[in-house]
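Protein modeling request. Please complete all fields; requests missing the sequence field cannot be processed.
Requester role: graduate student
Desired output: 3D structure, C-alpha cell encoding
Chains: 1
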Amino acid sequence: MVNEDGSGADVPPIVRTRTDRDLGDCVRVLADVHERDGYPVNWPSFPDAWLTPPSLVASWVAELDGRVAGHVDLARSEAGDAAPGLWGARAGVTIDATAVVNDSSLLRGPAAVLPGPTRPPLIFLDVDGPLIPFKARLVGREQAFRRAVAQPPADGGNPLLDRLDPDDGRRLLALGGQLAWATTWMAEANEVISPRLGLPDLPVVEWPDSDGDTKHGLHWKTMHLVRWAAGRPFVWLDDEMTDVDRRWVATYHPERALLRRIDPYVGLTEADFSAVRHWLVQDEGAA
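Delivered output (287 residues):
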C-alpha cells in the first residue's frame, strides 16, 4: 500500500472495536466475501442482524486507508454449533466454556485485496407488471412464433404466462448487470419465469415475514432491497415505486441507484431498456 505522499511505505491496518456506525460497511464487506468465497453459504435475509447475534460478546473491524476492510467477532457458543461441541468433547469441557470466533478470513473486503474487476451493478426484477403486463401484448406473427418456440410445454399453469416476451430475457442479459429476482414469486421465478425468458437461475431476494416500515408511503420492498444491495449500485425495475422510495434510497443508500417505474399495463419497453443502458454507462464512467 502506498502512502499519500507517494513514499511507497506500507501502511499497517488499524484494528479497533466495531461500532454501530460500522454495520453498513461490514454488510458491504460480507457481501463481497459471499460473492468471492461463498461465505456464508446462504445469504442472510437480514445481514446486519446476522452480524449482531444475541450471543455476540465482542467485535472488531480492521481499517485500511480509513475504510473498513475486515471484521471479526466473538460469540458465545450455542446449541447446534458443531465445532465448539466437537472441541468441547475432545477437551472434556462443556459448551458453556467455549466461544465461536467468526472471522471468515477477517471478512476481507475489497480494500484488503489487490484491485480487480468491479462487480457489475445489481438489477432487481419484479415479475407482475414489468414482465407479465396486466394487458396482453400486441405482437406480430414472427414474434409470436419465437414466443411459442421458447415456451415450455403447456402444464395447465398460469395462463398469464403467455404474456411473457422471450425478447425481454435476451435484452436483460445484454444489459450486463447482475440480475436478481425481487418479486413475490420468489424462488418460483427461477422455476417458471426463467425458462420462458431464456434466463439462467438468478439470485432471489427473500422477503421478511413482516412488510416492515411502510410509513409515509414507502414501498414495503424498498428498505429490504437497500439492505440486500449492501452498498452496491443497483437498478430496480418495478411498477409500484414512487418518488418517496427514490428520495429514501438517495438518502440511505451510499451508491448510485436507478428506480425505474414500469407501466404495468404495457410491461418493459425499449424506452425502459434504453434508460437502464444509459444509467449503466454512466456508472461505468464513475467507477
